[in-house]
Design goal:
Elements: H1 2-9, H2 14-59, H3 67-77, H4 84-87, E1 88-95, E2 130-139, H5 147-151, E3 160-169
Antiparallel strand pairs: 1-2, 2-3
């Protein structure tokens, strides 16, 4: 009986208890920071790719670009995006200068659970038109069930959507 009381008063193992309580919190924080950092890097690369491609479109009003040509230009300028051509969906519309109505706030993105691509508007516009373009790129979260990855808004396939948009005026001929 005396031995039980001595063990109960012993402070051996205190560091182990603190370690077990604190380390999972730090690991969860580290995983969340890594997830957010990778998503931010991918979004920055997507925005750079889109800006570079839009420079060509903006200045090339005598040439009309197809959705696939613009997508290829975006993906060529954003080479670090994995499977860019399969995961990127573009929409481009002319903005009415009288009302300045923009497309819906929610971007249309590829759903990997469905066959085919969603229908989106795509118009090249003409000289001096005000244009709105939006790119939606879907990625798999790195840690979908841990930390920030568990709190991210995802689609039915579990993919996170990165959206970049831009408004520009076509150069007159």
């Amino acid at each position: 009986m005396f031995n039980i009381w001595r063990r109960a008063k012993s402070e051996d193992g205190n560091a182990t208890v603190e370690f077990v309580l604190v380390v999972p919190v730090f690991l969860l924080l580290f995983v969340s920071i890594f997830e957010l950092g990778m998503a931010t890097i991918r979004l920055t690369i997507l925005e750079h790719g889109m800006d570079s491609a839009m420079r060509d479109v903006r200045l090339g009003t005598s040439q009309t670009f197809s959705r696939e040509e613009i997508r290829d230009r975006v993906c060529d300028n954003a080479a670090m995006l994995k499977d860019c051509r399969e995961n990127l969906l573009l929409e481009m519309v002319v903005i009415d200068r009288d009302t300045f109505d923009l497309p819906p706030v929610r971007a249309t993105c590829i759903n990997k659970n469905e066959d085919g691509l969603p229908i989106t508007d795509f118009s090249n516009g003409g000289p001096s038109d005000l244009m709105f373009i939006r790119a939606c790129y879907v990625i798999d979260p790195l840690y979908p069930s841990l930390g920030l990855g568990a709190m991210l808004k995802t689609d039915e396939a579990g993919n996170m959507q990165l959206v970049a948009s831009s408004i520009f005026a076509q150069e007159p001929n």
